[in-house]
Amino acid sequence: MCTVSWIHHDNGFHLLCNRDEKRTRKPALPPRLQCPRGVRFVAPVDGDFGGSWMSANEAGVALCLLNGANLGGCARHRSTTGTRSRGLLLLELADAPSTMGACERLARLDLDQWAPFTLAGLEPGLPACLVEWNGVDLVILPNGDPFMPLISSSFETEAVRQRRRAEFAHCTRQGLNAEALCGFHGSHGGEASAFSTCMHRPDAETVSFSWVQVDEHAVSFFYSPTAPCQGRSGETTRLELLS
What we know:
Strand content: 25-35%
Structural class: alpha+beta
Order of helices and strands: EEEEEEHHEEEEHHEEEE
Low-confidence stretches: none
Number of strands: 14
Largest sheet: 7 strands, antiparallel
Helix content: 10-25%
Mean pLDDT: 93
Oligomer: single chain
């Protein structure tokens, strides 16, 4: 369960993500450098299954994975739990040289082993590329910017989306910029609840905040292992881009 937003600038982009999880889940490990196939990338590590939900590599490509089919453009949908953790799928794509390269890999995979998901991919100079697997069809949207913010919730899904999108509009009413997005991710919309962007409910809460910044020189991956309403204490991992 995640809330994801982004903004482009001349030399790159900002990509922000709140991760919401049940309180019974193990804590994640902070972002670490990985290089499984000769391409370096940075990604936090899920404490239960060893996968990840967000990555950024030395080509300037960042990926963010949300549970569920969240774009609403597919008429057919098959509810399935899948046999593999979706976080492991992201690690299989994290070293892709471009967002379309990640999409090409996805198209060659047997996706039946994964439950429905939505994938956001960003790289400098291009719109966000969104991918939705709904359990039946794989849909690729090369220009996914109009769908931002992306919101995934297993609790009263549509009501949560409507409330958070209204809060997004409120937080960005003076303009769309990185600080406005940070305010959105830390917002309770008047009251901390299951519906607020920074989510708090008895059985689950926002457990971390990630902020990837990419410019012409490097990737900076900021990670806070707490809800953003508790401040921006955390650590930043920097990765130089390929020349």
